[in-house]
Task: inverse folding
């Protein structure tokens, strides 16, 4: 998964961070034949390339998916929604398309309760201690 520490503050990276990371991950050279030769890419290689988030054992998949969903739901959902919108804009219109959405979508996050709580928590307790309400 892409590391976006700003979302832990209830905001997103400015200056096009989301779409630029997506652009780099997409064009990074891949080892092996994968798409060209029709060969299978080992899951750990796909994870290392940023194509998939993580690799878990089959018997751990359900619990891992539930935990991930809970973590997202307890996070700064408005900031995560903007990340989703920026990645979608990048996918359809490239970096410039995502950049055109950035100011309108991201700047408003600074006025949210989640951003205020996230930034205050970061300053007083360090990263990873904020509690978000989706507001």
Result:
């Amino acid at each position: 998964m892409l590391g976006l520490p700003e979302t832990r503050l209830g905001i997103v990276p400015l200056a096009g961070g989301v779409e630029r990371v997506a652009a780099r991950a997409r064009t990074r050279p891949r080892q092996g034949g994968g798409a060209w030769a029709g060969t299978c890419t080992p899951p750990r290689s796909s994870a290392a390339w940023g194509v998939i988030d993580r690799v878990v054992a089959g018997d751990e998949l359900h619990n891992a998916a539930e935990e991930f969903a809970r973590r997202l739901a307890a996070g700064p959902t408005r900031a995560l929604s903007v990340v989703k919108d920026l990645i979608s804009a990048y996918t359809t219109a490239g970096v410039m398309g995502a950049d055109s959405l950035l100011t309108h979508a991201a700047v408003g996050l600074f006025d949210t309760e989640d951003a205020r709580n996230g930034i205050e928590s970061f300053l007083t307790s360090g990263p990873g201690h904020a509690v978000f309400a989706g507001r």
